[in-house]
Specification:
This protein is an alpha+beta fold. The chain is built from five helices and 16 strands. The strands form two sheets. Strands 8, 9, 10, 11, 12, 13, 14, 15 and 16 form a nine-stranded mixed β-sheet that branches. Strands 2-1-3-5-4-6-7 form a seven-stranded mixed β-sheet, with helices on both faces.
């Protein structure tokens, strides 16, 4: 299991306080050569599902052997497990609360429950495991420490409720999975699923009963403040409003149903 020397960080800590800097300081103290890259620290506080979506959508852009540190941890200090995983050629360090559910889709998945305190900081805060447990473990992984040295084998199980994506008759049904900072509503329907379902036929897209219309390619194809459905940069069907905010327009959130019907 080769290491890339890169550690990514994903948290809901924001940038106002020094929490992220503290984690980076701990990691650089253990591995001064580590390349630290921020994915985001603006995840909505305690929104584990949003963090899981961002992590799953972005880890693939990094080289194999990268260590991904994710800390959205509303259960910090509780009996929830602290984990390190290997999946898809990458390493992940996170609490066991659903952030790593997507790792279940990889055949090379290995997971351990962090139990070897020699890889932690000496003093452990009950409210900041990101600094005291997860950060030092990530640094040790980046330096080449074998995964099985960090703790005991762990069977990862899904924690977040799965989102629906199924075909019923002539309707492909999905749900909103994530909302970005522009208010775009990103569904769990992939471009491939939509293409296989439509087979080059015209489709009509509705969001929780609101008619959106057919599929477009760019925002410029509709007038300002008009709703639009298109395949976004994540590779999923998303609903937006040209020069506007679809979340505010439709009041949608994770789990809001979206339907694609054949014909217009």
């Amino acid at each position: 299991m080769q290491r890339s020397g890169i550690i990514t960080l994903l948290t809901d800590f924001g940038q106002r306080d020094g929490y992220v800097a503290a984690m980076k300081g701990v990691m650089l103290g253990l591995d001064p050569a580590a390349k630290l890259i921020d994915i985001s620290h603006e995840v909505e506080p305690q929104n584990v599902a949003a963090g899981a979506f961002i992590l799953e959508s972005h880890f693939r852009y990094f080289p194999a052997g990268t260590v991904h540190l994710a800390v959205i941890d509303p259960g910090v200090g509780s009996p929830r497990a602290a984990l390190a995983c290997y999946a898809g050629g990458h390493f992940f360090v996170a609490p066991d609360n659903g952030l790593l559910d997507f790792c279940l889709g990889f055949s090379d998945l290995q997971a351990v429950r962090l139990a070897q305190k020699k890889f932690w900081r000496e003093t452990i805060s009950s409210t900041f495991h990101g600094r005291d447990i997860f950060a030092p473990v990530a640094a040790h992984l980046a330096r080449g420490e074998p995964l099985h040295h960090l703790g005991e084998s762990f069977v990862l199980q899904r924690k977040l409720p799965p989102l629906l994506c199924q075909i019923k008759g002539k309707v492909l049904q999905g749900q909103i999975a994530y909302t970005d900072r522009f208010g775009n509503l990103i569904s769990n329907i992939s471009e491939q699923q939509l293409r296989e379902f439509a087979k080059n036929q015209t489709v009509t897209i509705t969001l929780a009963g609101h008619l959106i219309g057919s599929l477009n390619k760019t925002y410029a194809e509709v007038p300002p403040n008009a709703p639009i459905a298109l395949i976004g940069s994540f590779g999923f069907l998303e609903i937006g409003v040209n020069l506007g905010n679809a979340q505010l327009r439709f009041g949608a959130r994770r789990g809001t149903p979206i339907a694609i019907e054949l014909g217009s």
